[in-house]
Amino acid sequence: MSDTSLADKALGSEPVGKLLVRLSIPAITAQIVNMLYNIVDRIYIGHIPGVGAPALTGVGVCMPIIMIISAFAALVSMGGAPRASIFMGRQDKESAQRTLGNCFILQIIISLVLTVVVVAWNGQFLMAFGASANTVGYAHSYLTVYALGTIFVQLTLGMNAFITAQGFAATSMLTVCIGAVCNIILDPLFIFGFHLGVAGAAVATVISQAVSTVWVLLFLCGKKSVLRLNPRTFMLSPKIILPCLGLGFAPFTMQASESFIFICFNSSLLKYGGDIAVGAMSICTSIIQFGLLPLNGLGQGAQPVTSYNFGAKNVQRVKRTFRLLFTASMIYAVSVWLLVMLFPGMFARIFTSDETLIPFTAKALRIYCGAMFIFGIQTSCQMTFVAIGSAVSSVLVAVMRKFVLLLPFIYALPALSRAGAGILPVDRTTAVYMAEPVADILAVTFTAILFTVQFKKAVKGLSD
């Protein structure tokens, strides 16, 4: 039996519920483990004797740049991988193969450019992104080393999406598990054993990502992979790569705007609340990112099923996949929200032992994560837009949430606080944290309405 017919049997005819579980569990595991790269770094750094709090804040200031690096991986892979799945559903393996090759070369080019830019100007970036005289030294030490491993981040995140797109979710999971285990082992060795501190955490991360990259490339060059890296597909073709970038622009916008928003949060919090408010923000974002990663894993597990059956014009399987994705996402989002609301101090203590920072963070966390329970709607709709190739809708919901709503609220709500117009009965620092849940409620409402309209159109088009 050919590789294509094997894909048909799994993605095209296996029960959707069983298929979603089989693909989502490894994808969720991969998402969680991948996040451990930065989470473990922050946990160890936050507990460095004597300097843990300012060091943690310094590394938190690096996060916008790290997010941008990951966003460029998403620009290529999150557009290329769904298109490869759609081509496979249409039995067009040659186009799927060329999509993989073009995305691989483009990611290498982007990696080299990003490395030069970040190494050359990271000092200026960090001061603009919320670093202070107390924290910029730690931020610079971490980011300088991390930037040198940009190519490993790009290829690991980017090429691993093509492994998932072929239905090899367990292999995709192993990619990040291998790297994360390396990072967990190497972090204490370099931070405490070799006394490298913050820089040691970055060294451990770069080495771990390099190991993951080797694993990914060996698989995509091997016989088990349906789509293989082949030099004949490396010549960039606008007809192949531009649609990938168009589709990938939505997840890129989501991640890149997350970085820009993080910068705005940091600068506002530094102005109104000082280093302690910026440190709390670093912990809050770590918790919400880690807590919601399984939603992305569910979406990634559903993506090959949705994309393949959309390409094969199997309407019922497309609808059923979305229903299952939506239900599972909502159950999970509500569960995590309840845990955060009930035990915020417990989550804060994971990242710091500073007795001043812990209660401040616990209060901020309840506010910042106030609307987390509706994230299941946003994520399931957003991921389905990407899976069916609806690039315009994907970009629209991403731009609406971050730029149209959240960004203005970061500055507007403090102006309406007790110290401003007096309309909101909170201080300015609290008002900054409130921007996130207020924007989320409005954004999810918009996304749900748009999805209801656009999904019906897309499914109807398959039947015509």
Describe the protein's architecture and organization:
By secondary structure, the chain is an all-alpha fold. The chain has 16 helices and no strands. It has helices at residues 3-13, 16-46, 52-89, 93-128, 136-147, 150-165, 169-193, 197-220, 238-273, 275-311, 315-342, 344-351, 357-368, 375-387, 391-415, 428-463. Helix 7 (169-193) runs antiparallel to helix 8 (197-220) and helix 11 (315-342) runs antiparallel to helix 14 (375-387). The longest helix has 38 residues, at 52-89. The model is unreliable at 1-8 (pLDDT under 50).
Q: What would the keywords be for this entry?
A:
464 residues; mainly alpha; disordered N terminus
Question: Would you summarize the structure shown here?
Answer:
With 464 residues, this protein is mainly alpha-helical. The protein is built from 16 helices and no strands. Helices cover 84% and strands 0% of the residues.
What's the helix and strand layout?
Layout: H1 3-13, H2 16-46, H3 52-89, H4 93-128, H5 136-147, H6 150-165, H7 169-193, H8 197-220, H9 238-273, H10 275-311, H11 315-342, H12 344-351, H13 357-368, H14 375-387, H15 391-415, H16 428-463
Helix pairs in contact: 2-3, 2-7, 2-8, 2-10, 3-4, 3-5, 3-6, 3-9, 3-10, 4-5, 4-6, 4-9, 5-8, 6-7, 6-8, 7-8, 9-10, 9-15, 9-16, 10-11, 10-13, 10-14, 11-14, 12-13, 13-16, 14-15, 14-16, 15-16
